[in-house]
Design brief:
With 688 residues, the chain is an alpha/beta fold. It is 39% helix and 17% strand. It starts with 25 loop residues before the first strand and ends in a 6-residue tail after the last helix.
Length: 688
């Protein structure tokens, strides 16, 4: 910790060194709401004043506290005023919603400089902190940065406080990203962003963030997510040399505050999931649970074995903190504001017509069935067609070789070197030109009118909310005994009745089919909606759900569940799903026992992995409510779900699937960590 300023109100001199020349201009915004932090806030303002350049300003925003405003005006209007030009210091009122987000927006509205630096009123910038900000934004691709936030405990650090929960007191923590790494969002006590870009996304959402002493948060998380979405070529980085000492008062070294902060953080995550979507809102949290928490448990157990008895308290609080945060998320998902996710989807301005271009995406690893699938799709009776084969093992070249003899101009082959059917489908979506995008597998044969049935179904919708259609799947050709077993289970064939599901049912949907059952598992399990080898989406629906989740699906450790996840995401986003039995695909079922074993295991891991994802979202409570019944259906030999298996179905196949259910959550967390590391490695650090 650096030495304190020479007197809380002593004279300070603005920075005039050559480092300011030609650099970006900074506007430092400090938001205050209470006189109780006067001493530390004064030290923080003085520390900033020492580092301001000739083109920089300090804006102090007062959040609805007249006594505090008058005191600040006296401080900066007399002998005790730091040696700043009059135009370099602004005392302003929060003219927006009460709370930290509103106060920051008030500061942003007054800023005219290139970069806005946000510091808390209980944080003191370390020497050269602002020089690091200037250096970071010398790179034009830098959108925002987060600094190093060092805990300045008023007393001794509590022995029970786990290092992994430094975020509870707004500080760095064990597991935080390394210096220079790409981050989802900064810690609010020390962060900076380009003014123009931050203004473009609307600043901070007032539904999130601290209001007075209520320890809510996540407003900077939403800021980071929206900056990344609006400016995908930019970077949000951690720059630890942009450092502050963040005061932690004695009342925060208290168990009650710890539990309250965890609960409020969970509730804020629930609101954030509604605003930004669960994948974005909880991506870092899943990694935190999978890596930081699990290694923290091992770390404290090791300390305990070595004789450190206080490690038992830290271990206990680590687990209690996680549980309280999860509970807060579950409560917030119920008590938070009405979800945008269940509002009806916005109808497209131009309805789908029967003449629209349809792009058919076929992911493949170069299996021998591929040419038959491609020929069957090209033979469709729909005249406006594009066929995209995505080679998911391009280094081998098998897929290109298999279709090299097909010269139809409607066929295109694209490469996706990252393994997994979701990554391959997303590559196909990126290459597609169609208003409707259909999917089938490289071991399936669609009937000749398959695409026609797809566009007819979309065109028949008068509500504009139909986003997904699926169809019936039969076996292709004659079957051996093993394929016959699978066909008898009806896992692919959803029956002869046209059916419609929606979170917002409408009478106009009846033209598409009868309203589907909405029992205790609706819409979380999602298996009733269809299967990935026979499905189609409008482009608008795919864009609204962000395509397919690359943590799920064949080719990843989770082995499946990506189609269920896409169905679930679409219906929760307000889209209607329609199953049409006349939309037929014929599938080559697994024909060996080894292949069937792998498929059964993948069904278990995929379903469990996709539900694990939901547990990290605002819909966690809905899944938890139906979990006891779901476990009984999966594991009880007398359940109706297990009665669908034919008498000849080997018992060990059910056991293998059940083992998959047990392994699925861990496999999902592992895949999430791998994908996050891959994206970090493929993104430049952005360091100048």
């Amino acid at each position: 910790m650096p030495p304190p300023a020479a007197g809380a109100h002593g004279p300070v001199t603005p920075q005039t060194s050559a480092t300011c020349a030609g650099s970006v201009s900074l506007c430092v915004v400090i938001c205050c709401y209470t006189t109780e932090r006067w001493d530390i806030a004064s030290r923080g303002m003085d520390a900033v004043a020492r580092q301001l350049g000739a083109d920089d300003r300090l804006i102090v925003v007062v959040d609805h506290n007249e006594d505090l405003r008058r005191r600040l005006e006296r401080r900066f209007d007399g002998d005790a005023t730091p040696a700043l030009r009059a135009d370099q210091i602004v005392i302003a009122d929060n003219t927006f919603a009460n709370g930290l987000s509103g106060a920051r927006n008030a500061g942003l509205a007054l800023a005219t400089e290139d970069v806005v630096v946000f510091l808390d009123d209980d944080a003191v910038a370390r020497p050269d902190a602002l020089s690091e900000v200037r250096a970071a934004f010398a790179d034009d691709t830098t959108l925002a940065i987060g600094g190093g936030v060092h805990a300045d405990w008023a007393g001794a650090t509590p022995g029970w406080f786990p290092d992994e929960f430094g975020w509870v007191v707004g500080c760095d923590y064990r597991g935080i990203a390394a210096d220079g790494a790409e981050i989802r969002n900064p810690i609010g006590a020390a962060m900076a962003a380009r003014r123009a870009e931050l203004t473009k996304i609307g600043g901070f959402d007032s539904e999130l963030g601290r209001v007075g002493s209520v320890p809510a948060g996540c407003e900077e998380t939403l800021m980071g997510i929206e900056l990344g979405r609006a400016f995908p070529d930019g970077h949000i980085l951690r720059r630890s040399a942009f450092g502050v000492d963040h005061r932690v008062p004695e009342n925060r070294a208290d168990l009650r505050y710890f539990l309250s902060r965890c609960r409020h953080e969970g509730q804020s995550k629930a609101v954030l999931s509604k605003l930004a979507g669960p994948s974005s809102a909880l991506s870092a949290e899943v990694t935190f649970l999978a890596t930081t928490v699990t290694t923290g448990i091992a770390r404290y157990l090791g300390q305990l074995v070595r004789g450190d008895l206080t490690a038992a308290a830290r271990l206990a609080m680590l687990l209690v903190g996680v549980a309280m945060t999860v509970l807060g998320t579950a409560v917030g998902s119920v008590t938070g504001r009405a979800s945008k996710a269940t509002e009806p989807a916005t109808p497209p301005s131009d309805p789908v017509s029967v003449d629209d271009l349809v792009s058919v995406v076929i992911p493949t690893v170069g299996r021998d069935f591929l040419p038959s699938t491609v020929h069957a799709v090209l033979a469709q009776d729909h005249p406006n067609l594009q066929v995209i084969v995505v080679d998911n093992r391009p280094e081998r070249g098998d897929a290109r070789m298999l279709v090299s003899g097909i010269t139809d101009a409607r066929l295109r082959v694209v490469d996706q070197p990252h393994p997994g059917v979701s990554a391959a489908r997303n590559a196909g979506i990126a290459a597609a030109n169609g208003r409707v995008i259909a999917f089938t597998d490289d071991d399936a044969i669609p009937d000749i009118d398959w695409v026609t049935r797809i566009v007819q179904t979309f065109a028949a919708d008068t509500t504009g909310t139909l986003g997904v259609v699926s169809g019936r799947v039969f076996t292709a050709g004659s079957t051996n005994e093993i394929q016959g077993w699978f066909e008898a289970t009806g896992m692919f064939d959803k029956g002869p009745d046209p059916t419609v599901w929606s979170m917002n049912p409408a009478a106009a949907h009846q033209v598409l089919g009868d309203e589907g059952p909405t029992g205790v598992f609706f819409p979380y399990v999602a298996g009733q909606f269809g299967s990935g080898n026979n499905m189609a989406f409008t482009r608008e629906a795919l864009e609204s759900i962000g395509g397919f989740d690359e943590r799920l699906g064949t080719g990843t450790p989770s082995r499946g569940g990506e189609d269920l996840d896409s169905f679930r995401a679409a219906i929760l986003a307000g889209w209607t799903i329609c199953y049409r039995p006349e939309m037929i695909v014929r599938h080559h079922h697994r024909d060996t026992m080894a292949a069937l074993r792998a498929q059964c295991y993948g069904y278990g891991t995929g379903m469990a992995a996709s539900l694990t994802k939901v547990l990290g979202s605002r819909h966690a409570l809905g899944v938890l409510k139906c979990m006891p019944l779901g476990l009984w259906l999966v594991f009880s030999p007398k359940s109706s779900r297990n009665e669908i298996f034919p008498d000849a179905w080997p018992r060990h196949l059910r056991v293998i699937e059940q083992l998959g259910y047990l392994a699925g959550p861990l496999l999902y967390l592992r895949t999430h960590a791998r994908l996050r590391n891959r994206r970090r490695c493929s993104t430049p650090s952005g360091k100048p």
